[in-house]
Amino acid sequence: MSSLLEVKNLKKYFNTPRGTLHAVDDVTFAIEEGETLGVVGESGCGKSTLGRVILHLLDSTDGQILFNGEDITNVNAAKMSELRKKMQIIFQDPFASLNPRLTIYQTIREPMEIAGGMSKQQMDERVYEMMDTVGLARRLVNTYPHELDGGRRQRVGIARALVMNPKFIVCDEPVSALDVSIQAQILNLMQDIQEASGLTYIFITHDLSVVKYISNNILVMYLGQMVEKAESDTLFAAPLHPYTKALLSAVPIPDVHHEKKRVELKGELTSPINPPDGCRFASRCPYAKERCFKENPVPETIEGNHMVACHYFREINQM
Ligand SMILES: Nc1ncnc2c1ncn2[C@@H]1O[C@H](COP(=O)(O)OP(=O)(O)O)[C@@H](O)[C@H]1O
Ligand SMILES: [Mg+2]
């Protein structure tokens, strides 16, 4: 059985006046149907670009994308409109991503209109069904996005993403713009929907604590590259890469008796434009040696599917 999504050596470079910006640089992973891959890393590390390239909202520079075993790296317009139904995106800021001139009814109905083939009555029924699924009161059907609070707006975004019954959704920081109290509601909703329908998610966030419970696996990115990938429990219990350790040390632990030393990252951030040959994290890494500035570490897989890209991870972790 093949995975639902396979991404192989994916690259996305942007040409800028200052040189080539390596937004996504050789990223490889697979996601099984019904599972969630969390993608984490600081702002600017290429998370959104990765999601957009997979969905063909941006062209890839190099690499391969397989969906259900089928190579979809290069597709024509007809294939693309078929894929649009199966692959969807939920954005961070529903206020910016929803059309302010469309009512909730029109917003949720629009993907069905574009796809065609459904009667008005079928579309109406589906709109109400989706509103029920995402917990939006039916009386809100003729309101506009600005009349709703952030949580309800994101429910509209989710309903719109789900309306064509997709198999796969890229969730790009879907709760980052919401109040903490609302975040849990939306995360629970997304998990309930996944359980009910077997959806597969890529869940992008800069906040590791958000992905801990909802991800089967987590991919940590740094300046376009994958630095570590592991099962969620493993990553939180025994991170191997110095960058993952630093990210985790910044996640608050609920237990007050548990004292944790926060790893401060010092040093200059390497530029993603014409990046140097060495490890991109070397300039901020507390363990960096000469070799790290010369040679980019090749990702190494240990123990099943735990992947790490660091020359000295064995030494650092006393393995
Ligand atoms: N259209 C674009 N043109 C040029 N550079 C871009 C473009 N989109 C994103 N970038 C750059 O690519 C890098 C990754 O951006 P992005 O994927 O948005 O990161 P993240 O989502 O992790 O914050 C950043 O350096 C960003 O400035
Ligand atoms: Mg982003």
Walk me through what this model shows:
The structure is a single chain. It contains twelve helices and twelve strands. The strands form two sheets. An eight-stranded mixed β-sheet has the order 6-7-8-3-9-10-12-11, with helices on both faces. A four-stranded antiparallel β-sheet has the order 2-1-4-5. It is α/β, with parallel strands linked by helices and 319 residues long. Helix 4 packs across helix 5, helix 4 packs parallel to helix 6 and helix 5 crosses helix 6. It has one domain: Rossmann fold (3-Layer(aba) Sandwich). Strand 11 and strand 12 form a beta hairpin. The protein binds adenosine-5'-diphosphate and magnesium ion.
Shape: globular
The overall pLDDT, averaged over residues, is 93
Cα radius of gyration in angstroms: 21 Å
Q: What letter string, H or E per element, gives the SSE order?
A: EEEHEEHEHHHHEHEHEEHHHEEH
Distance between the termini: 34 Å
> Which CATH-level-2 architecture?
3-Layer(aba) Sandwich
Largest sheet: 8 strands, mixed
CATH topology: Rossmann fold
Q: pLDDT under 50 segments (min length 5)?
A: none
Number of helices: 12
Write the layout of secondary structure elements.
Blueprint (H helix, E strand, L loop, with lengths): L4 E12 L2 E13 L4 E5 L6 H8 L7 E6 L2 E2 L5 H10 E4 L3 H4 L6 H12 L4 H14 L16 H13 L5 E5 L7 H18 L2 E6 L2 H4 L5 E6 L2 E7 H6 L4 H8 L40 H5 L5 E3 L3 E3 L4 H4 L3
Parallel strand pairs: 3-8, 3-9, 6-7, 7-8
Antiparallel strand pairs: 1-2, 1-4, 4-5, 9-10, 10-12, 11-12
Helix pairs in contact: 4-5, 4-6, 5-6, 6-7
The chain binds adenosine-5'-diphosphate and magnesium ion.
